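I'll show a record.
***
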Amino acid sequence: QVQLVESGGGLVQPGGSLRLSCAASGLTFSRYKMGWFRQAPGKEREFVATINWNDGNTNYADSVKGRFPISRDNSKNMVYLQMNSLKPEDTAVYYCGTGISGTYYWGQGTQVTVSS
């Protein structure tokens, strides 16, 4: 079955950086668009970024554009989110996800806390 496992979260000061990783298994990874989403306490899950499977085209939420480049390594079944210039409002649980045949799959999430 499809399994997504995020890692790389933690506590970081404002202005700092983190790199999130997502390891995928149980799917032909190179054929699916992958995305990162986040959910802050008391808020709904929101879109952060996606990356296409074939041409590598990316799409970003306005709130992270220019700060959080998304990338993927199809040879390793990995997708990454490089988080730069972090702000307190970036604090959330970050999830990677992908849609396959009408079903959206999520990982368990990784906590990112931005605080001084």
User: Anything to note?
Assistant: The first strand starts at residue 3 and ends at 7.
